[in-house]
Amino acid sequence: MSEKSQKLLSLAQQLRLYKPLDSINNPTRRNNGIPQSGKPKRAAVLICIFDGNDGDLRVILTERSSRLSSHSGEVSLPGGKREEGDADDVETALREAKEEIGLDPSLVDVVTVLEPFMTKYAMTVVPVVGILFDKKAFNPAPNMNEVESLFDVPLEMFLKNNNRRDQEKEWMGDKYLLHFFDYQSGSKTHTIWAITASILIRAASVVYQRPPAFLERKPTFWNGNPDKVTAKP
């Protein structure tokens, strides 16, 4: 077995032992992720990790289509809203990844699920972590109605101060930092920010077992506090 394969196997074993942090503010503990004042809205995203050519752990990201009505042109993880037929969050993440970028679910070894995040519009977003052992077997087929392009970045960059900036924001009296990470892919610079950046900071912290080299100051609503979210009109 190659050194790279062994590294991913060790990572898979480590992550399978991970237990999401549990607290009274975790949306899975409050009405199954449903805020009291809103309808149930749930989504899942796939953090697909693979071994890069330089031996670094990398994650697949997408640039959303400019034709989409919301968040057009933004960088995001593959994923989307849970559908009625989905058995669980894992199925949602894998189904959406297949629909968006043509990633065969059989290629992904799902190893853990991280703590849910909640948007200020009462959407619970569940990060599903999977490992792509055979990157060469993945033939990207972006759905151009949803995805402009896809690219990959080193996961560890979300623990570093390099190419990072932040902006202070406030929501319902809650002050927090919005993080922006710039990454050059070919001739294009992609900016990973907002909840996608926050999810990847958490994922990198779990994978590398260390905190980021900067102050996070996350918004309370991303930790699933229903008192800080408002149903979208």
UniProtKB/TrEMBL annotation:
Protein name: Nudix hydrolase domain-containing protein
Pfam family, one: NUDIX
Gene3D superfamilies assigned to the protein according to its UniProt record, in alphabetical order: Nucleoside Triphosphate Pyrophosphohydrolase
GO MF: coenzyme A diphosphatase activity; guanosine-3',5'-bis(diphosphate) 3'-diphosphatase activity; metal ion binding
Record keywords, A-Z: Hydrolase, Magnesium, Manganese, Metal-binding
Domain Nudix hydrolase intervals: 40-178
SUPFAM superfamilies to which the protein is assigned, alphabetical: Nudix
Gene Ontology BP terms: acyl-CoA metabolic process; coenzyme A biosynthetic process; coenzyme A catabolic process
Cellular component per GO, a single term: cytoplasm
Cofactor(s) recorded in Swiss-Prot or TrEMBL: Mg(2+); Mn(2+)
InterPro entries (UniProt xref): CoAse (IPR045121), NUDIX_hydrolase-like_dom_sf (IPR015797), NUDIX_hydrolase_dom (IPR000086)
